[in-house]
C-alpha cells in the first residue's frame, strides 16, 4: 500500500511540474507569435514548427556581468584621471563607485533568489510564405522574461543580449544616479 501511495504521489508531483513547464512554454509560444506574426510577409500563412528552450540566465549572471561592466568603466575613468585627460569626469568616477556599492547591497539582499532565472533563451522555428509566395522555414533566437514576455527576437545568435532583463533593483539604481 505504501509503495502504491508513494508511486501515485511521485506521478502527481511529476505531472504538476510537467504541466507548469508546458504552461510556460505555451505562454512563451503565444507571446513570441504575437511578436513575430505582424512582421511576416504573409501572416495568414504562418505555421508553428517547434519551440526549444536552449538556455537560461540567472539574476546572479546578470549581477556579475554588470559588476564587471562598472568595474571596467571605473578603471577607465581612473586611467583617464591618472593621464590627466580632458575626458576624465570625476562625477562618472563617483557614479560608477556608487553603482558598485548598490549592486553589492542588492546582491546580498537577493540571497538565494539570485539563482532564479532572469531570462530564458529559446529557438523558435516556424514556416510562412516569403515575399515570392514560397513557404520557407525560419528560425529565431528569442529571449524572454521569467513571465515569458518577449525581450529580444533575432535571427542571428550574435544578436542575443548577454545580460537580458537585469535584476531586481537595477532599473531603480540606474534611474536614481
Description of the molecule:
The chain is built from four helices and four strands; from the N terminus they run H-E-H-H-E-E-E-H. Helix content is 49%, strand content 25%. Helix 2 packs antiparallel against helix 3. The termini are far apart. It has a domain at 60-113.
Write down the overall mean pLDDT: 88
How many strands appear in the DSSP assignment?
Answer: 4
Global Rg: 22 Å
Shape: elongated
Strand order of the largest sheet: 1-2-3-4
**Number of helical regions:** 4
Bin the helical content. 40-55%
Low-confidence parts, pLDDT < 50 over ≥5 residues? 4-18
The secondary structure category is alpha+beta
How many strands, which pairing sense, and closed or not: the largest β-sheet? 4 strands, antiparallel
Range of strand content: 25-35%
Instruction: Report, as a whole number of angstroms, the end-to-end distance.
Output: 63 Å
Defining key terms:
single chain; 177 residues; alpha+beta; four-stranded antiparallel β-sheet
List the helices and strands and how they pair.
Blueprint: H1 2-36, E1 42-58, H2 59-82, H3 90-110, E2 117-129, E3 135-144, E4 150-154, H4 170-175
Antiparallel strand pairs: 1-2, 2-3, 3-4
Q: What would you say about this model in short?
A:
With 177 residues, the chain is α+β, with helices and mostly antiparallel strands. It is built from 4 helices and 4 strands; from the N terminus they run αβααβββα. It has a domain at 60-113.
Amino acid at each position: 500500500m505504501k509503495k502504491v501511495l508513494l508511486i501515485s504521489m511521485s506521478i502527481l508531483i511529476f505531472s504538476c511540474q510537467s504541466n507548469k513547464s508546458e504552461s510556460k512554454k505555451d505562454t512563451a509560444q503565444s507571446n513570441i507569435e504575437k511578436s513575430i506574426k505582424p512582421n511576416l510577409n504573409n501572416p495568414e500563412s504562418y505555421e508553428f514548427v517547434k519551440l526549444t528552450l536552449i538556455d537560461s540566465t540567472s539574476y546572479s549572471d546578470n549581477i556579475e556581468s554588470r559588476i564587471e561592466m562598472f568595474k571596467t568603466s571605473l578603471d577607465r575613468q581612473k586611467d583617464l584621471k591618472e593621464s590627466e585627460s580632458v575626458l576624465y569626469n570625476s562625477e562618472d568616477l563617483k557614479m560608477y563607485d556608487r553603482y558598485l556599492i548598490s549592486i553589492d547591497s542588492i546582491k546580498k539582499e537577493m540571497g538565494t533568489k539570485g539563482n532564479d532565472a532572469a531570462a530564458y533563451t529559446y529557438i523558435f522555428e516556424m514556416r510562412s510564405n516569403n515575399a515570392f509566395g514560397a513557404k520557407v522555414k525560419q528560425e529565431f533566437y528569442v529571449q524572454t522574461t521569467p513571465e515569458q514576455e518577449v525581450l529580444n527576437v533575432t535571427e542571428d545568435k550574435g544578436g542575443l543580449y548577454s545580460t537580458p532583463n537585469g535584476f531586481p533593483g537595477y532599473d531603480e539604481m540606474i534611474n536614481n544616479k
